[in-house]
């Protein structure tokens, strides 16, 4: 089965809309390299569109009605949004769910040390990465440092043209004979992903220059970095204990190709689906069913923890909103709502790579420029660990998308037994709701720089709107 390239169908007016959406998406990517930064942008966009924070509504005890817009933030890393529909919650919701965390390196709790006249930060990689891809690459440090007094220092170093950048060193090819014989998984070990952050020893002031050599600093480069951290950023070494610092590729998202048809950026898995879900949510009219968008943390490490999809924060938020609509009398009401809901697990899929065609079964693969991608199931090998959408649900989605002239394609994640992956779909499916994975095809997935098609970004946005307006099983 062949799919038409979606670029062929657009009018000039549609191309303008496509370019506007992608321009805004590039800004979102460039300004949101951590979950916290994404949440800041999401809240700003939501409030500008008239969404009201759930806690404020709970305090006011105001009854919600059709058309009302609500959002709730959990620990500054996850967000759930609601647009109240005309039908009661007992008939279910239409849900979009994406994640806003991406693979990276996290700074350890006791990270700073000196070795061979360099100051380095020790890191622990987060999510699935090819570790060698993070060497000899300009890196930035983003995150927060929370001091004992409760004050928070926001860190973003390496993005401004005047900022310094950081790097993980790589072995020069002239001395790499033994390294080149190693398996790719062993070329760079996890404990070797230490970020070089300085090389200049501390300069003693006049009052200390008379000290003897034995009284001089034993780690002068480390001490120089600590001095900079205190004077320029306002924190000390022990404050690393209560810090969340992420090391990510430095630089803005960019248009790619002579034709500017693609976007190259860090973190498109899964912020491309998060952004398109968010924008669809903002642009929707009042729908028959309540629409919910979930943008969560921790998917790349199993959706665990208080801010992952396995947490109860989503379920709790739904219960609170139902209560404000005067539709929550018991837990049974919540269970009925969730079981009768329909969801698109908005996550990326692997696009066919012309340099690595052999890992794809091309009749069942996604192509950049082919439109939104549906993965009936993910998992690995014998569908292990996957959600497997039922045929009736897929047929309903096909009908909705074709009526809305949304281009779509169906794919699997590479050849059987070649590998695999997962999303948050199986977690929501535990409620008994219909769920299928759908999103944008990506090249270079989990690498420092991932590639997507602008056309697929636009079709995914259009698809999410069509689903939210039209799905009513």
How many domain modules? Answer: 2
Number of continuous helical runs: 12
List low-confidence stretches: 208-212
Proportion of residues in extended strands: 15-25%
Principal-axes shape call: globular
CATH superfamily of the largest domain: Zn peptidases
Order of the strands making up the biggest sheet: 1-2-3-13-4-14-20-16-18
Approximate helicity band: 25-40%
- What would CATH call the architecture of the largest domain? 3-Layer(aba) Sandwich
Structural class: alpha/beta
CATH top level label of the largest domain: Alpha Beta
How would you describe the overall organization of this protein?
This protein has 473 residues and is an alpha/beta fold. The protein has two domains: 6-102 and 266-470, Zn peptidases (Aminopeptidase); 104-249, Aminopeptidase i, Domain 2 (Roll), CATH 2.30.250. Helix content is 29%, strand content 23%. The chain contains twelve helices and 22 strands. The chain has helices at residues 12-31, 35-48, 54-60, 177-180, 184-187, 220-233, 268-283, 313-324, 331-339, 391-403, 425-429, 454-470; strands at residues 52-53, 69-74, 78-83, 93-99, 104-115, 118-126, 139-146, 152-157, 195-198, 243-249, 254-256, 262-265, 290-296, 342-346, 349-350, 372-375, 379-380, 408-410, 420-421, 434-439, 441-442, 450-453. The strands form five sheets. Strands 1-2-3-13-4-14-20-16-18 form a nine-stranded mixed β-sheet, with helices on both faces. A six-stranded antiparallel β-sheet has the order 8-7-10-5-6-9, with helices on one face. It has a three-stranded antiparallel β-sheet with strand order 11-12-22. Helix 7 (268-283) crosses helix 12 (454-470). The longest helix is centred in the N-terminal third of the chain and has 20 residues, at 12-31. The relative contact order is 0.18.
